[in-house]
Design brief:
Blueprint (H helix, E strand, L loop, with lengths): L4 H8 L4 H16 L5 E3 L2 E4 L4 H15 L8 E4 L16 H16 L24 E2 L2 H11 L8 H10 L1 E3 L13 E5 L6 H15 L4 E4 L6 H14 L6 E2 L15 E4 L1 H8 L10 E4 L6 H11 L7 E6 L1 H10 L1 H7 L3 E4 L15 E4 L2 H9 L3 E4 L2 H9 L3
Parallel strand pairs: 2-3, 2-4, 6-7, 6-9, 7-8, 10-11, 10-13, 11-12, 13-14
Antiparallel strand pairs: 1-5
Helix pairs in contact: 1-2, 2-6, 3-4, 5-8, 7-8, 7-9, 8-13, 10-12
Bound molecules: FE3-S4 cluster (F3S).
């Protein structure tokens, strides 16, 4: 694999231990995937933040790198396992909190912005079309490749951090134009009316296309909320890192003749919506997977005006979007109802099963997928119904 002089210096250790370790990770990755060379990246999103997933081994790895490592490009962070400020009111135990805060401290010393959100593109990390980036967080990866037209592979925590510490990533996979072409055409023959419809369809299609690139035809409109829901769902049931929507996403003007196709009908949509429908009442309601946009917070405030929640209700979003919501007056209405903003975290990466919750209602197929895998009961429903569920007396 060809390395520039500067990259050779990084690999030799001349630029410090952490940079050397990072370059070793990237060279090993490049060799596995037959990359000819490295490419400079303009931004990084680091996943692998919750202590629930990292454990002590992950914390040790980060602490070691933080001794002399520094981010070379804009680097933002995925959600942690708790709110960094209000973890006590979330019921998090102090042992977990202590470790989680050490993880965050290590990232801060590495020069990573402590954004703790899975929608970095709504919180100041906004790559441009065509830029090479190295993002972890599968939903954000699919969004960045598909909706923005930036180029990233689906990075894991260590490889994303390595890209941050060197400003490079190996040139392979979705960094190359020839690997960004569709592999399956999906003819959407039903109307998708809500973001939850996109979530359900994404989950259904992700199972079929696995790590391929679906090309959707027949969708007439999709905003940020629909596109982030689709990104998250496709990436959770399959390994999808990119999709196209004819007439909507920036690289959709591409040849699809001769590519295998399938139809997605209203019956498929109904079936997809029913995948996550466990019996019984929920004891926990959460929305914001991926983290809510300002428009979603406006809708939630509208639905909660004058209501009181009777179940634990988490509204997950970034601190940046929460700030915008404060200014717009939505936060006051949401908090007055008893609903809680879950900042820096989400229902999946926080240890909610250890907080005693057993059954979750949510409008995200991705959240249902992971929560069910963690042993919880799940019910998938539209945002409006989540609010009804949270406010409905038994
Ligand atoms: Fe984000 Fe958590 Fe969902 S990290 S995409 S809200 S599982």
């Amino acid at each position: 694999m060809y390395l520039t002089n500067e990259e050779e210096k990084m690999l030799s250790g001349e630029e410090g231990h952490a940079t050397q370790k990072a370059m070793q990770i990237l060279v090993a990755l490049g060799k596995i995937y037959d990359a000819e060379r490295m490419v400079r990246v303009s931004s990084v999103q680091v996943s692998g933040v919750s202590y629930k997933n990292l454990g002590d081994a992950g914390l040790e790895f980060l602490s070691e790198l933080a001794k002399d490592g520094k981010a070379r490009v804009k680097t933002t962070l995925n959600p942690a396992g708790m709110s960094l400020t209000d973890w006590r009111s979330q019921g998090i135990d102090s042992g977990f909190a202590e470790k989680q805060l050490k993880v965050i401290d290590a990232y801060a010393r590495l020069g990573v912005e402590i954004t703790c959100t899975c929608t970095p593109y709504l919180a100041g990390n906004e790559p441009l079309f065509g830029q090479h980036i190295a993002w972890g967080e599968s939903s954000a990866v699919a969004y960045a490749n598909s909706v923005i037209g930036a180029k990233t592979n689906r990075e894991g925590g260590p490889s994303a951090l390595a890209a941050s510490l060197t400003g490079r990533t190996p040139l392979y996979g979705l960094h190359l134009a020839e690997n960004r072409r569709p592999t399956l055409v999906v003819d959407v023959q039903t109307q998708l009316r809500f973001p939850e419809d996109f979530s359900a369809m994404g989950y259904f299609i992700g199972r079929v296309v696995r790590d391929g690139i679906p090309y959707f035809r027949g969708i007439t409109a999709a905003g940020i909320e629909e596109l982030k829901s689709l990104s998250a769902a496709l990436a959770s049931s399959g390994g999808v890192a990119m999709f196209h929507i004819a007439g909507i996403t920036p690289e959709s003007e591409t040849e699809v003749d001769g590519i295998e196709s399938l139809a997605f009908s209203s019956r498929d949509l109904q079936e997809a919506g029913g995948i996550f429908n466990d019996r019984g009442a929920s004891d926990f309601v959460s929305v914001g997977c991926p983290h809510c946009s300002l428009k979603e917070l406006a809708t939630i405030a509208d639905l909660l005006e004058g209501e009181q929640v009777v179940r634990e209700f988490w509204v997950c979003c970034s601190r940046e979007v929460k700030r915008q919501s404060d200014e717009a007056g939505y936060s006051r209405i949401i908090e007055k109802s008893g609903a809680k903003f879950a900042l820096d975290t989400c229902m999946v990466v926080a240890p909610i099963e250890e907080l005693g919750y057993r059954a979750v209602a949510t409008n995200s197929a991705k959240a249902c997928h992971y929560l069910r895998n963690a042993g919880l009961k799940v019910r998938f429903m539209p945002l409006e119904e989540c609010v009804v569920e949270a406010t409905r007396a038994d």
